[in-house]
Structures are given as C-alpha cells and as structure tokens.
Amino acid sequence: MASNPSRVAASISGHADALRERSHQRIERAARRALPLVEQVAQRAHEVVETVGIAGSDASESVLHGTTRLQGAGARLADRCRVAVNEHPLLAVMLAVTGGAVAYRSLAGRHSSRDD
Questions:
Q1: How many helices (H) and strands (E) does the chain have?
Q2: Using an 8 Å Cβ cutoff, are 73 and 65 in contact?
Q3: Quick one: average pLDDT of 8-34?
C-alpha cells in the first residue's frame, strides 16, 4: 500500500490548516472571556488610585493643620515664658544660671572622659 506523496502532503496541510483555524478560534474565545476581567481589574485599579489620592490629600491637610497648631502652641509658650520672666525676673535669672551650670558640667564631663 504505497502512499502518494502529494496526498500525504495535502493531508498534513489540511490538518495544519484545521489546527491553525481551531487555534485562532480558541484565542478569540479566550480574548472575549478575558476582556471583562481586564476591564474589571482596570476599574479597580482606578478606584485604588482615587482612594490613595484622597488619603494623601487628607494626610497633607492633617499635617498642615498640625503644623499650624504646633506653631500656635509655640507662640503661646513663648508668650507665657515672656510673662513669667517679666513677673519673676530673679527666678528667671536663677533658672538660667542653674541650666547653664548643668549644661557646662554635662559637656565638661564628656570632654574629660574623651581625654582618658
């Protein structure tokens, strides 16, 4: 039973064409199925970007508000210190001298331990 080479080639070619056509159909079917999933992922990604953007904006507003409050607290503390110094000048001088002495001893102790 001798096979005709042209018939074998035609048969192989027919099978290859059918396989190619089925492959294209499967790819198209998979693409149609994947498209809604891709769109859903893209939509969720947009939502995440918006959520992060809003959170970042809220955080920056909180930082700005906190900075403003902190600056106000610093100004109030400076005013209170000014009033206290004006009302008790001798006590203010004594506290300044004591603080200077403590700082000097602390720093002098560091220098002497380095020399050892």
A1: 2, 0
A2: no
A3: 86
User: Within a domain: residue 62?
Assistant: yes
Site of tokens 């035609």: 10
For residue 34, what are the domain limits?
A: 5-87
Count how many residues are written for the chain: 116
CB-based contact 7:14 (threshold 8 Å) = no
Q: What is the Cα–Cα distance from 49 to 55, expressed in whole angstroms? A: 10
pLDDT digits (tens, 9 = 90+) for 59-87: 888 888 888 888 899 899 999 999 999 99
Judge whether 116 lies within some domain: no
Tally the domains of the chain.
Answer: 1
Name residue, tokens 């099978």: 15
Residue 50 lies in a domain: yes
